[in-house]
Amino acid sequence: MPDALSLWETSTEITLVTGRIGNLLIKQVYYAGSDVRLGALYRDQFFEIHNNSNETIYLDGIYFAQIYGEASTSSEIEPFQLPNGQLDWSKSVGQTDSENANTAYVYSDEVIRFPGTGEEYPLLSGRSIIVAATAINHKAPLVVTDDEGEEVVYEVPEPERTIDLSKAPFEAYYRPYQESQGSSYLDSDIDNPNSANMEIAFKSYGGKDLILDTHGRDAFVIFEATTESFDSWNALPSPETSFGEIDDDTNTYLQIPLDAIIDGVETQRNDPSKAKPKRLPDAVDAGEIAGIKGFYSSESVIRKVSKKVGERTFYQDTNNS
């Protein structure tokens, strides 16, 4: 029979990572969308930013980015992948910081920015704002004219499945950008003149609107940077792209330094057997959050409340979704 001491002769390695506690938080992400036939599909997607500080914060120039990466775990690890199946960005052509490529940066295929020149868009302490993909009442039928001049009606047979976003203070209106690039646009992406339009700062993703992955295979960050700093950041091809394959049409992904990030949230599929490998370093988000019902379920993910002070609400910021 082993003595008492031998029962404890095992060891466990624990890695401690310091996360950044920000004054702005991603409070809520509504990525699942609503029923394809009975709701509004992905047209009603939105995210919500919260001021978790005791002071007014100006949103002018704050960035929101969708983080790019592998959407599923391979049965066999490829040379351009990390042991967990995620992309190994040290293998990207043009990478200038190979040693820290996977720990000091994240990589985005779409970045949008709050408009304003400095103090145009204040967010009061303990308050939140919504950024809608399209700031309309999604409970009502949507009547639009397509690019061929034909009238199109998007019916919403069960309006309780979706939401009225007509009063969202910000929206992602992509049509002008798409037209400037000579690309097609979604006829359902219409402009609400009462909502401020987000600016498209970087885009290699082919989506024609702010489209979040309805399955949860995504990750998001908010960050701040001067225009000069932002313009100086590297944009790299995916690690699986060899030098000989690169041409003018090759997608690149913006390399965002972790020290610029204010907050991040990693989402995940609701089916663990189909989970994607993690995209955000633990210092940004050590965990992941998934909906219960899955895609087109009218579900959103939202932070837990930490405390309430009068009319102000403050949310938990544990850097672990």
The low-confidence runs, each spanning 5 or more residues with pLDDT under 50, are none
Mean pLDDT: 92
> What can be said about the biggest beta sheet?
8 strands, mixed
Q: Helical element count?
A: 2
Which percent bin holds the helix content? under 10%
Structural class: mainly beta
Hey, roughly how much beta strand do the residues contain? 25-35%
From N to C, what is the helix and strand string?
Answer: EEEEEEEEEEHEEEHEEEEEEE
> Separation of termini?
43 Å
Estimated radius of gyration = 21 Å
Q: What is the tally of beta strands? A: 20
Label the overall shape. Answer: globular
Description of the structure:
By secondary structure, the chain is mainly beta. Helix 1 (175-180) links the parallel strand 10 and strand 11. Strands 4, 5, 12, 13, 14, 15, 16 and 17 form an eight-stranded mixed beta sheet that branches. The protein has a six-stranded mixed beta sheet with strand order 11-10-7-2-1-18, with no helix packed on it. The longest helix has 6 residues, at 175-180. It has helices spanning 175-180, 227-232, and strands at residues 24-30, 46-51, 57-58, 63-67, 105-113, 122-123, 128-132, 142-145, 151-154, 170-171, 196-197, 199-203, 219-223, 235-237, 252-257, 261-268, 289-290, 301-302, 305-309, 312-315.
Characteristics:
mainly beta, six-stranded mixed beta sheet, single chain, 20 strands, 321 residues, eight-stranded mixed beta sheet, 2 helices, globular
In short:
The protein contains two helices and 20 strands.
Itemize the secondary structure elements and their pairings:
Elements: E1 24-30, E2 46-51, E3 57-58, E4 63-67, E5 105-113, E6 122-123, E7 128-132, E8 142-145, E9 151-154, E10 170-171, H1 175-180, E11 196-197, E12 199-203, E13 219-223, H2 227-232, E14 235-237, E15 252-257, E16 261-268, E17 289-290, E18 301-302, E19 305-309, E20 312-315
Parallel strand pairs: 7-10, 10-11, 16-17
Antiparallel strand pairs: 1-2, 1-18, 2-7, 3-6, 4-5, 4-13, 5-12, 5-15, 8-9, 13-16, 14-15, 19-20
